[in-house]
C-alpha cells in the first residue's frame, strides 16, 4: 500500500508523454513526404485541414472509409516484422474508396498499445507513409494511444481512416452493370489482409517453419510471402475510372470473390466467375493443400489471386486491359455478368484448385 503523501505521475502509471512527443517529432519527415495539393499542414495540431479546391475539385462528393489489418497484425508482431503492415492499413482503406470512383485525399491512423515502443511505432508509421505515397493521399494526422493494461506486452492495434472525393455524378454505383458485361481481375500480391485467422491456425496446427524458404518459392521465406503487403490499385485504376471505362469495381476482401462481387451489382445481374481463367498462385495452392480446404471455401475466404474485379462493357474491355497492363497490373479474365438473381457463382472443372470433380459455389444477395 502506498503512502497517503506519495506524489503520483502519469509516467508512473505507465504513460510517457515524453515518448509520445518524441514519436511525433521523429515521424514528422515521414508525414511531410506524403503532402499533396490540398494538404500542406504540419502534424501535432488538434486536427488536419484539406482544401478540395486546391486538389482540383469543383463539386465533389466526399467518400469516407475506415478499416484495419485484422490478425495479419498478430503474425507481424510475433515475428518482429513491422515495416509493411502500415501499407496494408492504407491499402485496405484506399482500395475501398477507389471502388466507388473516389480519389483518396487524406488519411489518419490510430495506433494503440499498452507500452509505447518508439522503434516499433516508427517502423509502422513509416509503412503508413509509404502506403499513402503509393495511393497519392496525404497523412494529415493520427492518434497514438498508450494504454497500460489494455494490451499484452509488445502487442498493438491499428485502424485507418481515409477520405476521398469524386465529382458529383461520376461516382461508381454499379447501376450501369448489365448482362453481357465482362469481368476482369487484377492480380493480388498475396493473401492481402483477410483470412489470416485461418492462416495462423494452419501455421500453428501444421508447425510451419516461417523463417525457412517457402515450398512454393524457394527464393523467399514463408513469412515474407505471408506478410507481402496488400497491393494498392489506386494510381492504376483512377485514370480508367475517370475516363468512364469501368462500370463497377469490387475490392476482394473478407468474403472472397463469392461475396464481394455481388456488393456492386444491381438487381437482375449475376456474376459468373470461371476459376479456370487464371492460374492459382502457389501461395493459395499451399494454403489449400495444408488445410485440405474445399474450393468453395477458398472462394469465400481468400482472394484466390484476384485482389480487384472490374465490370466493363465488352466494347471497352481491350482498352481497359491494355491501359492497366501499361500501368503495371496483371489483368486476368475472370468471368461475365449474366441475367439472374443478384449474386455470384464461382465454378470450375476438375483439376482446378485441386478439385476432384467439377464444382461450383453460389452466393445470392
Q: How many helical stretches? A: 11
CATH superfamily of the largest domain: PurM-like C-terminal domain
Strand arrangement across the biggest beta sheet: 8-10-5-11-9-12-13
Quote the distance from N terminus to C terminus.
60 Å
What general form does the structure show? Answer: globular
Helix content: 25-40%
Mean pLDDT, to the nearest integer, reads: 96
In total, the number of domains comes to 2
- Provide the succession of SSEs: HEHHEHEEEHEEHHEHEHHEHEEE
CATH architecture label name of the largest domain: Alpha-Beta Complex
Total strand count, please? 13
Radius of gyration: 22 Å
Note the beta-strand portion.
15-25%
CATH topology of the largest domain: Phosphoribosyl-aminoimidazole Synthetase, Chain A, domain 2
Can you tell me the CATH class of the largest domain?
Alpha Beta
Low-confidence region ranges = none
The largest sheet is: 7 strands, mixed
Structural class based on helices, strands and sheet pairing: alpha+beta
How do the helices and strands line up, and which of them pair or pack?
Layout: H1 17-32, E1 60-67, H2 72-78, H3 85-98, E2 103-113, H4 118-135, E3 138-146, E4 156-167, E5 182-187, H5 196-206, E6 213-214, E7 217-221, H6 222-226, H7 234-242, E8 248-251, H8 256-260, E9 269-274, H9 282-291, H10 295-301, E10 306-312, H11 317-326, E11 331-339, E12 343-348, E13 359-364
Parallel strand pairs: 2-3, 9-12
Antiparallel strand pairs: 1-4, 2-4, 5-10, 5-11, 6-7, 8-10, 9-11, 12-13
GO molecular function, one term: phosphoribosylamine-glycine ligase activity
Catalytic activity: 2-formamido-N(1)-(5-O-phospho-beta-D-ribosyl)acetamidine + ATP = 5-amino-1-(5-phospho-beta-D-ribosyl)imidazole + ADP + phosphate + H(+)
Main location: cytoplasm
Amino acid at each position: 500500500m502506498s503512502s497517503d503523501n506519495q506524489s503520483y505521475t502519469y509516467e508512473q502509471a505507465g504513460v510517457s508523454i515524453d515518448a509520445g512527443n518524441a514519436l511525433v517529432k521523429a515521424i514528422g519527415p515521414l508525414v511531410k513526404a506524403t503532402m499533396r495539393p490540398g494538404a500542406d499542414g504540419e502534424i501535432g495540431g488538434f486536427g488536419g485541414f484539406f482544401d478540395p479546391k486546391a486538389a482540383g475539385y469543383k463539386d465533389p462528393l466526399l467518400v469516407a472509409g475506415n478499416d484495419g489489418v485484422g490478425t495479419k497484425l498478430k503474425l507481424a508482431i510475433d515475428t518482429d516484422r513491422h515495416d509493411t503492415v502500415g501499407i496494408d492499413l492504407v491499402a485496405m482503406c484506399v482500395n475501398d474508396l477507389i471502388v466507388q470512383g473516389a480519389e483518396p485525399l487524406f488519411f489518419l491512423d490510430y495506433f494503440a498499445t499498452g507500452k509505447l515502443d518508439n522503434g516499433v511505432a516508427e517502423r509502422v508509421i513509416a509503412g503508413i507513409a509509404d502506403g499513402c505515397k503509393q495511393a497519392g493521399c496525404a497523412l494529415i494526422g493520427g492518434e497514438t494511444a498508450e494504454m497500460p493494461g489494455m494490451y499484452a506486452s509488445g502487442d498493438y492495434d491499428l485502424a485507418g481512416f481515409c477520405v476521398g472525393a469524386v465529382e458529383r455524378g461520376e461516382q461508381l454505383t454499379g447501376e450501369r452493370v448489365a448482362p453481357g458485361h465482362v469481368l476482369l481481375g487484377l492480380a493480388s500480391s498475396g493473401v492481402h489482409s483477410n483470412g489470416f485467422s485461418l492462416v495462423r491456425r494452419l501455421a500453428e496446427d501444421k508447425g510451419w517453419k516461417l523463417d525457412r524458404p517457402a515450398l512454393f518459392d524457394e527464393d523467399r521465406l514463408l513469412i515474407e510471402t505471408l506478410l507481402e503487403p496488400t497491393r494498392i490499385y489506386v494510381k492504376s485504376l483512377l485514370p480508367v475510372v475517370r475516363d468512364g471505362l469501368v462500370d463497377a469495381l469490387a475490392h476482394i476482401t473478407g468474403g472472397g470473390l463469392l461475396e464481394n462481387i455481388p456488393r456492386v451489382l444491381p438487381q437482375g445481374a449475376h456474376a459468373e466467375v470461371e476459376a479456370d481463367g487464371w492460374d492459382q498462385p502457389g501461395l493459395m495452392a499451399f494454403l489449400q493443400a495444408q488445410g485440405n480446404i474445399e474450393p468453395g471455401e477458398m472462394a469465400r475466404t481468400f482472394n484466390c489471386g484476384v485482389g480487384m474485379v472490374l465490370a466493363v462493357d465488352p466494347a471497352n474491355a481491350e482498352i481497359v486491359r491494355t491501359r492497366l497492363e501499361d500501368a503495371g497490373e496483371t489483368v486476368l479474365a475472370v468471368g461475365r455478368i449474366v441475367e439472374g438473381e443478384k449474386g455470384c457463382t464461382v465454378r470450375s472443372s476438375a483439376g482446378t484448385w485441386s478439385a476432384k470433380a467439377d464444382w461450383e459455389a453460389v452466393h445470392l444477395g
